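Side project, low priority. Logging it here so it doesn't get lost.
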Amino acid sequence: MVDLSHGFRNAKSKEAWSTTLKTYAAPLRDKHLDEIRTDDVLAVLAPIWQSKRETASRLRGRIERVLDAAKAKGLRSGENPAWWRGHLDKLLSKRQKIAQRHLAAMPYSDVPGFMEWLRGREGVAARALEFCILAAARTAETLGARWNEIDLAAKVWTVPPERMKAGREHRVPLSARSLEILADMQSIRTSDYVFPGLKRGRPLSVNALKQVLVRGKVENVTVHGYRSSFRDWVDECTSFPGALAEAALAHTVGDETERAYRRGDALEKRRKLMEAWAGFLGAPKRSADVVPMRAAK
C-alpha cells in the first residue's frame, strides 16, 4: 500500500499502524489500489466489527487514509470505499449496536484505573477477576483453574484441552503480579480449585465476578470484554505482532497449512507480552522481571 511513514511522530506509532493493517487488512494488500471497492473493505471490517470495535474503527480510518493518499498520488480514482459518514455508517452501524450490547468492553485506556481500584478490594472474587484480566483469559478458564494446572517454578498455567473453547491445551505465562495472586490464594487454600466458591468442592461462580463489577460501579462492561481491551491495547500501544496477541487469547491463527508448520506456542515471547500488559495495568513492581510500560493513571 501507499507509504505514509513520514506522518508518524515516533517508531511505535508507525509500528502500530503497520501491524493493524498487516493483521486485519491482509486481503487488501493483494489487490491493486484502484481495484479496492466497498465490498472489499467490508470483508476485512465485518469479522471484527462486533468483537473488536475500537480496533475495527481505527482500521477503517487507516484504510481510508491510505486510499485517500493513493488518490492524491494518482494511483486510484473515484470515491473512497472506506468513507464512514453517509457510506459505511449505513452498512455497519447496526452491527456496532449489537456489539455494544453483547460484547461490551472497557476502553483499554480505562483499564489501569479499574485495576488500581480492584487491587484495593479484598476477597476471592476480586483476586479471580484481577487474575483473569492479567492472563487475558476467558471467565470459565479462570474459574475452573485447578492447582495441578499451575507450575509455580516454571511460571506457567496449563489449561487442559477439555476446558478450552478450541479443544487444545493452552499454556499461559504468568506475570509477576499473577504469581503474587496465586501465592495469596495458596495461603488460604481450601480446595483443588484456585478460586474456590462458598460451596465446598465447587469453584467460584460467574455471578461473583459480575458482582465485583457492580460494586465497582462499572456499567455496560462484561468480564469477557477485557479480552477485547487487551487485544486493542496490543494493536494501539505496542509493537508486538498481532499473531502473538491472538496466540495469547488462544485464538486460531492462520489456515490449516500454516498451523501445521507452527509447532511451538511462542511461550517465552508471550511471557514478555503478558509482563508488558501487567506493567501497563500498573501492577506493583515487586520483581526484577517486571518492566512496567506505563503506570496506572
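Brief comment: The beta strands are 150-151, 156-159, 170-173.
Revisit when time allows.
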